[in-house]
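Hi there,

I know you've been waiting on this one. I reran it after we fixed the sequence typo, so this is the corrected version. Both the input and the resulting structure follow.
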Amino acid sequence: MRSGPSADLTPLRAVLKAAPPAELAAQLTDAQVVALAELIRNAHARQQSQLTAALDHALRYVPGFLRGTVRGILFP
């Protein structure tokens, strides 16, 4: 645990779209909070990319003329 002023958790709040645990402010520096927010942002981007690729792969089993309709039903 570090002593001194609390870290600004705004970057994490923006990435998580929710309030992060308050304990993080007491344990992390501002630079560490920014680095953690960037790691989470990158992980979300990779996850979205992988989910999109998996969906495209799965939809290959659906006849072409139905893919748009099936995609619309599964992901409104």
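Quick highlight: The radius of gyration is 19 Å.

Best,
R. S.
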